[in-house]
Design goal:
The chain is α/β, with parallel strands linked by helices and 448 residues long. It has helices at residues 22-27, 67-73, 91-99, 106-117, 123-136, 140-152, 178-187, 206-213, 220-230, 244-253, 261-274, 295-311, 333-345, 352-368, 377-386, 389-401, 433-442, and strands spanning 2-7, 17-21, 35-40, 43-52, 62-65, 80-86, 164-168, 192-196, 232-236, 279-286, 315-322. Helix 3 (91-99) runs parallel beside helix 5 (123-136).
């Protein structure tokens, strides 16, 4: 059936959506979320169908196209295109099988990830996939297969080994170890291309904090050049097409704060494999208010990360650290950036807890990458920090990405302050990580 095009001038940010008037849909026996094949000249595109009864959106005889479809088909308002019913993708049957409790094969998970990456599944359908893995879980083979598929259908980086990387699963305000660890490890001559996330529910993500000091939205070709020249980077992973299916899955998970173990492990390891990492250090903070609240779950995650990492050809080491309270002095992008610079500059105001944890983690990576003998990593990390080599490497990274600030006095902090004094002397026994993060976000973090 031929229908006239209406450019709706709206982008979906992913799925390819076409809109029909309900009377046309009824006449063609089409239903919400059906697939339709759209043809214009030699171009063929399969779209997901939405239906409206409003003449103001699309009238009878017209098909509304979102921006992505207009671009794919190369059409303009008023041009006619052919519309035909298309079979739904096989990946939907795989998702249904998972909901029923089946274990999925590498091929089936690959089809699901391919369709997510190519915008062939709607947000609702991806949500069902997320729900199926949350309810039914993923075994180790499924997690490995999901990880491989995420890497396969995205961009990848390739550097001479060893390539180091680290990750914290989060949940602890001020835990800005990455920005201390990366320059230490790079100053020792190891390669460490670090992609990080922005804040979702926390006060600041590593990308938000690094953005105070330098540009973090870096195109892939430029990123390759920076890492080859400087040996390291700290950029926002969302600006790259590394494991893009993971980004769409995370977007669906966020409203309900779902964090299924299998999905989380695949998400982390896919991003590491995509940057070519051969040696990965995972930080799992454990404690009340952290994402992992008890050691039993922490040990289980340790076994899964290390075992699945081995299946993927990566040496993965997991540290279980104290996640019961915030770390560092400041919470929020600028204050956390100041803590990092104080540590790298050897300033007496540097937070001792963040410094100690960062050196411990950097030391472990130095040993994993054979830059230091076993048991000597912390000593080398301390020396690289004390000598100023780590700070100078940080300045190199900042300059390579586009400098904004490299000294604490250059940072723009909030103008309004309030000193809160304790009503009586005593000892602080605990701190609520989530509550502190909420306060910081209410005050404008990470942007403020």
């Amino acid at each position: 059936m031929k229908l006239a095009v209406k450019d709706l001038d709206i982008g979906t940010g992913g799925p390819l959506i076409a809109v029909l008037h309900s009377s046309d849909a009824q006449r063609m026996d089409l239903h919400f979320e059906d697939r339709v094949r759209l043809s214009h000249g030699k171009r063929r595109v399969v779209a997901i169908l939405d239906i409206t009864s409003s003449q103001g959106v699309v009238r009878q005889g017209v098909i509304g196209l979102m921006d992505e479809l207009v671009k794919e088909l190369g059409v303009r308002d008023g041009q006619n295109i052919e519309v035909q019913l298309e079979q739904k993708p096989a990946s939907l049957q795989h998702i249904r099988s998972k909901l029923d409790g089946a274990c999925l094969s590498e091929e089936q998970l690959g089809e699901i990830v391919y369709d997510i990456t190519r915008n062939k599944l709607s947000e609702i359908e991806i949500a069902y996939f997320v729900a199926s893995t949350y309810i039914r879980g993923l075994n180790a083979d499924e997690v490995a297969a999901l990880t491989k598929a995420m890497v396969k259908y995205g961009e990848t980086l390739d550097f001479p080994p060893p390539v180091m990387d680290k990750h914290s699963i989060g949940g602890v305000p001020g835990n800005r170890t990455t920005m201390v660890v990366v320059p230490i490890v790079a100053a020792a001559g190891l390669t460490i291309p670090k992609t990080s996330s922005r804040a979702i529910t926390s006060a600041a993500g590593t990308a938000d904090v690094m953005e105070v000091l330098a540009r973090v939205e870096v195109p892939l070709p430029e990123l390759r050049h920076i890492v080859k020249r400087v040996g390291a980077c700290m950029v926002w992973g969302g600006a790259l097409a590394l494991a893009p299916a993971d980004d769409r899955i995370i977007r669906v998970e966020s409203p309900l704060s779902l964090d299924a173990e299998g999905q989380m492990i695949a998400s982390v390891l896919a991003k590491k494999r995509s940057v070519g990492a051969t040696h990965v250090l995972i930080d799992i903070p454990v404690g009340a208010g952290a994402k992992v609240w008890d050691m039993e779950r922490g040990e289980r995650l340790r076994g899964l990360f290390e075992g699945i990492g081995k299946q993927l050809g990566m040496e993965v080491h997991v540290l279980l650290t104290d996640g019961a309270q915030p770390i560092g002095n400041g919470i929020g992008s600028a204050l956390e950036a100041r803590d990092v610079l104080w540590i790298l500059l050897g300033d007496e105001r540097a937070p001792a807890d963040l410094r100690k944890k960062s050196i411990m983690m950097a030391g472990k990576l130095l040993e994993m990458g054979s830059a230091a003998p076993l048991g000597e990593g912390v000593k080398l990390a301390e020396e690289l920090l004390r000598s100023g080599k780590a700070y100078r490497k940080m300045v190199e990274i900042i300059d390579a990405q586009g400098r904004r600030a490299s000294r604490p006095e250059e940072l723009v902090l909030g103008r309004q302050t309030e000193e809160v004094r304790a009503a009586r002397p005593g000892t602080i026994r605990s701190a609520d990580n989530k509550f502190i993060a909420r306060i910081a976000r209410a005050l404008g973090s990470p942007e403020g």
